């Protein structure tokens, strides 16, 4: 009988111990769960939570430009001139003209009859009526130059030959003017050619539109030893 009672007591204690173990295990599980939840919330607030900053938008107000009030119109009153006597007015105007600078009233005098206005010479090939030399033409002048040409002794002695090109103008009076040297290979030949052409007698001047006109010539003088 005692043996059964001991077994019965052990069976009863076994159930009691089992229930106590289950209660302790549940308490441990709940404690662990609460501790884990507390650490998770602390980590959330510590690392991941960023408080939201609320930016309040301030409305922009634009102030219209204040325009200055318009100025009142200015009334111009014309000056009233009282004329008591016409004689005084004429005398006043006369004084004004007397004060003018004399150079303003200077009159440009036209050229006198003795003064001639120089015109640009017309090339020989373009003049309407060509100048005439001693009743002849260009060839007549060429023969006259060859007849009056004196060969420089020094140039002849040194066997110097060549051609000198001159330019000159027959003016409206038929005179040879403005003799220029265009080209020449020797000083002595150039001087002699220029001397002969400059000593030419008067020509009958050329005409353009029925009036005497200056004519420009280009003329070669040839020096050749026989």
Structure in a nutshell:
The protein has 226 residues and is an alpha+beta fold. It is 39% helix and 14% strand.
Give the key terms.
226 residues; alpha+beta; 5 helices
Portion of residues in beta strands equals 5-15%
Principal-axis shape: rod-shaped
Largest sheet: 4 strands, mixed
Distance between the termini: 191 Å
CATH fold type of the domain at 122-223: TolA/TonB C-terminal domain
Q: What sequence of helices (H) and strands (E) makes up the elements?
A: HHEHHEEHEEE
Tally of individual helices? 5
Mean pLDDT: 73
Proportion of residues in helical segments: 25-40%
Q: Structural class from helices and strands?
A: alpha+beta
CATH architecture of the domain at 122-223: 2-Layer Sandwich
Specify the CATH class of the domain at 122-223.
Alpha Beta
Number of E strands: 6
CATH superfamily of the domain at 122-223: TonB
Low-confidence stretches: 47-51, 74-87, 96-117
Largest beta sheet: strand ordering: 1-6-2-3
Radius of gyration: 66 Å
The protein's oligomeric status is single chain
Task: Walk me through this protein's architecture.
It is built from 5 helices and 6 strands; from the N terminus they run ααβααββαβββ. The protein has helices spanning 2-48, 86-98, 138-148, 153-157, 187-198, and strands at 122-123, 162-170, 176-183, 207-208, 211-212, 215-223. It is rod-shaped. It is α+β, with helices and mostly antiparallel strands and 226 residues long. The protein has a domain at 122-223: TonB (TolA/TonB C-terminal domain), CATH 3.30.2420.10.
């Amino acid at each position: 009988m005692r043996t059964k009672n001991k077994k019965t007591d052990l069976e009863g204690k076994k159930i009691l111990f089992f229930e106590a173990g289950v209660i302790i295990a549940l308490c441990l599980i709940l404690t662990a769960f609460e501790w884990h939840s507390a650490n998770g919330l602390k980590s959330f607030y510590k690392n991941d939570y960023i408080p939201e900053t609320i930016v309040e938008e301030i409305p922009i107000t634009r102030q219209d430009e204040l325009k200055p009030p318009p100025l009142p119109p200015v009334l111009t009153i014309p000056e009233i001139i009282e004329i008591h006597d016409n004689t005084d007015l004429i005398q006043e105007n006369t004084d004004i003209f007397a004060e003018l600078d004399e150079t303003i009233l200077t009159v440009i005098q036209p050229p006198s009859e003795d003064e001639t206005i120089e015109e640009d010479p017309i090339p020989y090939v373009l003049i309407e009526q060509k100048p005439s030399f001693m009743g002849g033409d260009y060839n007549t002048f060429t023969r006259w130059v060859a007849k009056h040409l004196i060969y420089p002794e020094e140039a002849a002695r040194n066997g110097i030959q060549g051609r000198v090109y001159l330019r000159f103008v027959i003016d409206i009076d038929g005179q040879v003017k403005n003799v220029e040297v265009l080209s020449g290979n020797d000083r002595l030949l150039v001087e002699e050619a220029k001397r002969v052409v400059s000593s030419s007698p008067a020509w009958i001047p050329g005409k353009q539109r029925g009036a005497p006109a200056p004519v420009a010539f280009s003329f070669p003088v040839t020096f050749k030893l026989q």
